[in-house]
Design brief:
Length: 255
């Protein structure tokens, strides 16, 4: 599958840096895509199924004078992701930043967890991260950055999050080891570990009492916002060249 459903590419005098953002149609991924575009990057957005939402993100980027296109691609499918990477390089001339924001989260106690759901979640969170990072390691230009998404739940150790936290532990391992495997390439690899953040991924299925309780776990006494997390990603994608092989906890001080 190589069809590009959305394409808003501006003529730019000087070649911009180029970013791929998976999971870029909504939530944190959408905010990251827009922030990187505002920082002057051309952006390719990978989305799993919400074509309309992806188009809206592209339109917002275009409205701000940026360049973007969106393409449907499953992060765990190496052929679809290769098509996305190839299309991005062909359109923009190369790839400098890869942000893997795509993720899946299902909550239940370990004793009751459906193993079929576990396999589907791990396909996205572990295999997907591996596929995206493998392609990024082969294509990102010197001076570039690879940024994955972990979670603060690994340290918060909240009941019900066993399967999700375990999958994100694998993301940490991939990120830290790949940073060392790319020695000499001038490419940084880091993971961002958000705390509770006001997105549908976090809010869906929770009652107000749970949301209020988790909002006050940090000293700032609020949920994070997608913009809070996008700010960290922009730092790692741009000026933070001396931060490498790290998991950055963005949770308002909850841990």
């Amino acid at each position: 599958m190589t069809t590009q459903e959305f394409d808003v590419t501006k003529s730019i005098a000087s070649q911009p840096r180029v970013a791929i953002v998976t999971g870029g149609s909504r939530g944190i991924g959408a905010e990251v895509a827009q922030r990187l575009a505002a920082d002057g990057m051309a952006v390719a957005i990978a989305y799993a199924g919400d074509k309309e939402a992806a188009g809206e993100v592209v339109a917002r980027i275009a409205g701000g004078g940026g360049s973007a296109f969106a393409m449907r691609a499953d992060v765990a499918d190496e052929n679809q992701m290769t098509a996305l990477f190839d299309a991005t390089a062909a359109r923009f001339g190369g790839i400098d930043v890869v942000v893997n924001a795509a993720g899946s989260m299902t909550l239940a106690p370990l004793a009751d967890f459906d193993l079929a759901v576990l396999d589907r979640m791990h396909r996205t969170n572990i295999r997907g991260t591996f596929v995206v990072n493998q392609l990024a390691a082969r294509t990102v230009r010197p001076g570039g950055a690879i940024i994955n998404f972990s979670t603060s739940v690994k340290k918060l150790a909240l009941p019900g999050y066993t399967a999700y936290a375990a999958s994100k532990g694998a993301v940490d391992a991939i990120s830290l080891i790949l940073a060392k495997e790319l020695r000499g390439r001038d490419i940084t690899v880091n993971a961002v570990a958000p705390g509770p953040t006001a997105t549908s991924l976090f809010l869906d299925g929770k009652d107000q009492e749970t949301i209020d309780r988790m909002s006050t776990m940090n000293p700032l006494e609020r949920l994070g916002t997608p913009g809070d997390i996008a700010e960290v990603v922009a730092f790692l994608a741009g000026p933070a060249r001396w931060i490498n092989g790290q998991v950055i906890y963005a949770n308002g001080g909850a841990i």
